[in-house]
Amino acid sequence: MSQPSxxxxxxxxGGKEKGDLAWWQLSLIGIGCTIGTGYFLGSSIGIKITGxxxxxxxxxxxxxxxxxxxxxxxxxxxxxxxxxxxYYAGKAFGxxxxxxxxxxxxxxxILIMGSQLTALxxxxxxxxxxxxxxxxxxxxxxxxxxxxxxxxxxxxKVENILAVTKTAAILMFIILAGAALLGWIPGGPDNQxxxxxxxxxxxxxxxxxxxxxxxxxxxAYGGIETIGLMSMxxxxxxxxxKSGQVMLIVLTIIxxxxxxxxxxxxxxxxxxxxxxxxxxxxxxxxxxxxxxxFNAAIITAGFSTMTASLxxxxxxxxxxxxSKDAPALFEKKLKWKELPLASLGLATLGLxxxxxxxxxxxxxxxxxxxxxxxxxxxxxxxxxxxxxxxxLEMHIKDKSVSIFGLLLLVAAVTGVxxxxxxxxxxxxxxxxxxIIGIVTFIMTRVWKKELxxx
Length: 454
What we know:
Layout: H1 23-34, H2 37-40, H3 43-50, H4 54-78, H5 84-93, H6 95-124, H7 133-150, H8 155-181, H9 199-202, H10 207-219, H11 224-230, H12 240-265, H13 277-281, H14 290-322, H15 341-360, H16 365-391, H17 396-414, H18 423-452
């Protein structure tokens, strides 16, 4: 049976037909789609900022992520629409909200692609440290665009195989790290920190640093909104909450165990945003094959995720054009392979921006883009919860859960302000939101004029 992959564009096919997915299949798809470079490399920024307390950040982020999934799945099951959460924002607050939500999501996807592109370039420098970051970024961007243009028929199947590759890479680390800690593998650092047992060791940089690390834990769960959209393809759509629960429980267990092992094996001071924390953790052991195999697995799977994001963002702009929230030009497709050339062209400009940034800011680029992408993701998720509060009939329990979820999202965004090294990412996200806000305001005036003339 063919299963949808993470490259599937947002929206539904229209109507309320039931799909053919079992709840556990959706859980597995969710696990594969969510694990990405945000976890393999982005988590290193969080560890560097806060130390061992990053584990608690991941637990809190899993709770916030579940709240978003839970309410999006409910709205999708009750009223599946092509615009999905952008449609629900418009339904809840008016056309301005749907327009702003759509463009905010597009912007966040562009930033996420930029983050993935930079991550792949950083990981590639593991073998070629003297090659400038922007050259790798350009190579991966061209390859990704080439795959999208070709429209490879088997890409979805490859995507699912690579999702298994990502999960296998984490499990490989867990097994090897466990064996190393048990003394079965020779080598290791002289002063192994071990599992922290006191408050001072868990929060070595203080509570403010812990607060700032939340955004990177949330970022590692990015993509969960896409899985919420797939809930309409379940055989029994009532199973959507159960599917989300299992998915997030498994993800949290995998994330937390691997994080605990990493911070137990090497001091958090040794972690760098230029290398996966899992490679750093096993660097001192006599496992010459591991860094190369692990790095190759992450790059392969990360490239598939970036290309899937390019597919998604290209189709998203077509959807926005169909709903008249983007110029009609972006709706047009070439007869050859039904390629939306204008939409792909705009996404390509976004990738080009990342390449130029890699040329100008090679040192801090990954932190800035990843931080900004994570914040825009939180804005998207906040809109999902706020929309559900107006659309769904909520009892006291649901209202309490939604408020709790919003508070976690607000905490993740505001924590960035207190960390100087990543604060620029916050300002970048504010700039993008301001631009979207100004354009949205202008469009509301245009819509009012159109109404007067009808």
